[in-house]
Amino acid sequence: MVTFRPIESQGRVLVVEDDASARELLAEALRFAGYNVRTAPDGLDGIRLLDMFEPDVVVLDLGLPMATGFEILHELR
Fold first, then answer.
1. Pairing label, strands 36-40, 12-16
2. Which of 2, 9, 46, 56 is 20–30 Å from 26 (CA)?
3. Is the pTM higher than 0.85?
């Protein structure tokens, strides 16, 4: 019998990307690698998730609707 043990989380990653297919592909690859991943489709959701999720790393598209990647960077600082 083959048993699988859960992968321990490598850390928290927030992916902020407005292109749905790119966002989901990246999120799935990171989850497969053991990361705890949350995604946001626009800048406002990205800013909201910064406080709620407290990510270790943010993968950020700079050209986002609602709030630009630069505005998110400002919030991070």
1. parallel
2. 2
3. no
Please provide residue 65's backbone torsions phi and psi, each rounded to the nearest 5 degrees.
-80, 160
- How would residue 35 be classed by pLDDT, with cut points 50, 70 and 90? very high
Q: Report the chain's C-alpha Rg in angstroms.
A: 14
In the DSSP assignment, the letter for residue 5 is: P
Rounded Cα distance between 39 and 18, Å, is 10
Q: Which residue has the tokens 């928290």?
A: 12
pLDDT tens profile 5-18: 555 678 999 999 99
How far, in Å, CA of 65 to CA of 10, rounded? 29
Residues 28, 22: Cα–Cα separation, whole Å:
10
Cα gap 59→72, rounded to integer Å:
11
